[in-house]
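pasting for ref
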Amino acid sequence: MAEMKRLAKDTAIYGISSILGRFLNWCLTPFYTFTLGNTAEFGVVSKVYAWTSLLMVILTYGMETGFFRFANKPGNKPENVYTTSMFSLLVTSLAFLIVSTLFMNPAAKSLNVANNPEFVWMMALTVAIDAFSAIPFAWLRFCKRPIMFAGLRILMIGANIFFNVFFLWVCPMIHRSAPELISWFYNPEYRVGYVFVANVFSSIIGLIPMLPIMWNVKWIFSWPLLKELLKYSRPLMYLGIAGIMNQSLDKILIPYLYPDMSTGDSQLGIYSACFKLGLVMMLFTQAFRYAYEPFVFSISKNTNSKQSYVDGMKYFLLFSVLVFLGVMYYMDVIKFLLAPKYHAGLVVVPIVLFSYIFQGISFNLSFWYKLTDKTKWGAYISFMGLAVTVLGNIIFVPLFGYIASAWTSFVCFLVMMVVSWLLGQRFFPIKYDLKMAGRYVVVGGLFYTVGMYMPIPDLRIRLAYRTLLLLSFVLYVIRVDLPAGTFKTLLGKK
């Protein structure tokens, strides 16, 4: 029981810190839309961040999971696994930084930032530091030090936010009234460049407290152990690449799919900013994953476990529809988080919200191959989604613009969801309540239509009307699909 309590406590710390970190990072999106000069500058930020996410998966090459697997393997000394894997990441991160430095100018030209090749170098430095730090962070988790882990993550995010606010808001105010105070380090024309400067500073600030953890062990490198680690981790890297590309490839491709890349960057800026208004659904899905994953594995041997999976899917769907309606009903207010020049892209928000719902359902369905040790099917499904992502963007974005990227993401995760369900019914059949799911598609669609398309010019009356509709939906859910005592059960009360 003590171990389970510790697991619950650690899970809460990791989960809360991750969700808080994502929210704080997201807060920079509204900030950028108001402080950066134009939508193209935010497009550059989005494009570089997308490349950063992909490069992080490649440069860590599944080694974090490999470390946990081999550090817990009988016969291996965790310290040896730690130093061997960390040495491997050190070498590859340095090699990546050197290559990026040598090819900085061609890379900057391909990213449409030829006038600022240092953007590429700063991105490379940030990725190299973060990739190298992955194993020390994993070591903290292995040593059951969740508070330090979470604290360092929040420190890095806080530093990133601080330097962004300092360079993009504080410095311009000082420059307008007393430019001589900061002219020795601040250039008002550099704007978007300070986003990358802030990232470099935050990565360094996160690295410095980790140095004692890195060096406070006896460094032992084992080539045979590294070969085993690489053999185990390589498939995970491929799976990770497919997963991150399903989420980020559209932000990489969009600028190249317009006749003029500057126009592409501008359109990407609008698309990315509005895409991120799906934060609430993303956070809900993430929170559900943190709670549901350990729950699934803990009950997998129970005789009634399949019914629990059915109930889990049911509650996820109910609350997903509620979140979807809540976001869309109050979009007239939420949209003011973004500068007006980005509002043209708000049409993608409902599509993005549905994409997150499909991701969440796919996550629920994924346990059939995790519980039956058929994880190769997870890779097949991810690469199937990747094929949809690539083809959908390349074919349709030149014809319809960034709206095609949103619909491609929608179709990608819809296909993954359907394929996972079909295969799951073959290998690990679970009788999900499809009738209930279909009913909520209809009911949710009805509430959405009645709420969004009723012509009410006055904003206050419109919001009041939609609030009453949302409360009506909640009452419907409670009356029809939540048995008496559900909330007491969820809260742990008898």
